[in-house]
């Protein structure tokens, strides 16, 4: 994707490379990513949630997200804003992710 593509769109595409190892589906299609934006200091702020509090994959996901997004020239630092509201639910998953997991 060219740099003419909006940052958020490019960042979300990159985050589709971060796969939840337990479910085998990327975190974007799982509905875990609520927002991605560059702040005024060129920090990439990722607002996200997890499927459950105390998720054992938190560090893995943080590292994988940071690795994907630090590859952008305009990103100085990646900051992850973990939120619990709105709570994650199956309805946040993309149609493709639900089909892949056999959830209709």
Automatic annotation (TrEMBL):
<dbReference type="Pfam" id="PF01883">
    <property type="entry name" value="FeS_assembly_P"/>
</dbReference>
<dbReference type="InterPro" id="IPR034904">
    <property type="entry name" value="FSCA_dom_sf"/>
</dbReference>
<dbReference type="InterPro" id="IPR002744">
    <property type="entry name" value="MIP18-like"/>
</dbReference>
<dbReference type="InterPro" id="IPR052339">
    <property type="entry name" value="Fe-S_Maturation_MIP18"/>
</dbReference>
<protein>
    <recommendedName>
        <fullName>MIP18 family-like domain-containing protein</fullName>
    </recommendedName>
</protein>
<feature type="domain" description="MIP18 family-like">
    <location>
        <begin position="8"/>
        <end position="79"/>
    </location>
</feature>
